[in-house]
């Protein structure tokens, strides 16, 4: 049940029998030849595909996150950590105040991970609240499926290239890009990062066959759904 396709009457009726929901977290940042909204597209779709059979509401993906290292790529938007922490806390407070108690955060951007303590603090301050923070692509079964296809997989490479993150008429390079030197990335400013990684792919092929991607996707959906259905006690 997507919030964007629901009225408040629908949600009020739902909350009489269930208090679960999903909050996707995304980002607006460079993804080489893919959409700047890759992380938001993927987090909201994986959440929706996982929740639909259960009738659990899925809120719109938060489209901005923490990505200061990509600010030399036009179109990227980054929030300050303090701003983002307050934003996530305000959203969680709103969910709680309107009746939700169990919140699964489906995160689509690794840079957003520093806000996980906000979830712990929120639970401590709200009786009965539960919050799970789920990096969908890093979940054990999903990551194992990625590695089984090709262990050279990274940001903006084939592992984020799905039919729904591609840009029409925008072909991707046919070769496998070597991994960038991650040690050199750690002490670079945004322009230094761009100089080092070039088009934005950290390393790996740019695209894999759709049947392999669909296999990974179905594993990720099932792994996400299991968190919704699992023991919240």
TrEMBL record:
Name the record gives this protein: Creatininase family protein
Gene3D superfamilies: Creatininase (3.40.50.10310)
Requisite cofactors: Zn(2+)
Short name of any one Pfam family annotated for the protein: Creatininase
GO molecular-function terms, A-Z: hydrolase activity, acting on carbon-nitrogen (but not peptide) bonds, in linear amides; metal ion binding
Keywords of this entry: Hydrolase, Metal-binding, Zinc
InterPro entries noted in UniProt: Creatininase-like_sf (IPR024087), Creatininase/forma_Hydrolase (IPR003785)
GO-annotated biological processes: riboflavin biosynthetic process
Organism: Paracoccus liaowanqingii
Keyword set includes Hydrolase: yes
Superkingdom of source: Bacteria
Record-stated family: Belongs to the creatininase superfamily.
